[in-house]
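Hi support team,

I submitted a single chain yesterday and got back a structure, but I'm not sure I'm reading the token output correctly. Could someone confirm the output below corresponds to the sequence I sent? I've pasted both exactly as they appear in my results page.

Thanks,
R.
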Amino acid sequence: MDFSKLNNIEIIRLYGDVVKELRDRSIIRTKNVVGDLGERMAVDYYVNTSGLPNLQDAPTGTQNIDAISRDGNRYSIKSLTGSTTGVFYGLPPKDSDDPVQQKFEYLIIVKFDDNYELERIIELTWIQFLNFKKWHSRMQAWNITLNKKILGEANIVFEKSGINS
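Hi R., thanks for writing in. Yes, this is the structure output for that exact sequence:
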């Protein structure tokens, strides 16, 4: 389809049709399209890849986690097209002396390229997450910025051939 031949109203309507179809197919569950796409890609990849835990979606609205393995491990899944994840709420703020309550066992980061093709899936343990998290002062919460150090220490679950770290 040549999108350049569509006017603005037609292209917006087409986007709406695609989002509706993604919902009808249970690929997305909320209005966070990129987040939902990443969750679906991660869960499907884990389910269909020998040697990885069999994940299932956490119930919609579950705080802090997006998937659960059959052995009870909790997974938070973040999707990104750049280098920084969305924020993690529910942890004590920067410089707080409050104890940190463990929210999940693993963090899965799904990285898409500019065309929303899967670039990589990486997995961090809770301890690695705590070591790499950075304070986002505007959002007053924590996030993760992918860098060479993280990629060197993380479990690379999937990586598209030909990409550079």
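A quick pointer for reading it: The first strand starts at residue 55 and ends at 57. Let us know if anything else looks off.

Best,
Support desk
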